[in-house]
């Protein structure tokens, strides 16, 4: 296994930067899609309205959903 410092070169930096940007945008898009699916499967829960009322429980559930979707996306993209 080679270390990053051993295999780094200016030619590979641009490609790595492009790959990081592409995978970052893909991850954000998949996270947004996952959030929309969560809203679709919970039609009776109006997240924005509940958060405006100060419902902390909805915020905690929403944070858990976003973290869970993020973990799935990371494993799907990164392997």
TrEMBL record:
Location within or outside the cell: Cell membrane
Keyword Transmembrane assigned: yes
Annotated signal peptide: none
Main location: membrane
Keyword Transmembrane helix annotated: yes
Lineage: superkingdom: Bacteria
InterPro entries: DUF350
Keywords: Cell membrane, Membrane, Transmembrane, Transmembrane helix
Pfam families for the chain: DUF350
Segments passing through the bilayer: 12-35, 56-77
Topological category with respect to the lipid bilayer: Multi-pass membrane protein
Similarity-based family: Belongs to the UPF0719 family.
Record-given protein name: DUF350 domain-containing protein
Organism: Gemmata algarum
């Amino acid at each position: 296994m080679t270390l990053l410092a051993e295999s780094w070169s200016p030619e590979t930096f641009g490609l790595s930067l492009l790959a990081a940007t592409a995978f970052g945008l893909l991850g954000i898009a998949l996270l947004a899609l996952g959030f929309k699916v969560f809203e679709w499967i919970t039609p009776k829960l109006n997240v924005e309205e509940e958060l405006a009322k100060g419902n902390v429980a909805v915020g905690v559930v929403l944070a858990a959903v976003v973290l869970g979707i993020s973990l799935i996306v990371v494993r799907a993209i990164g392997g």
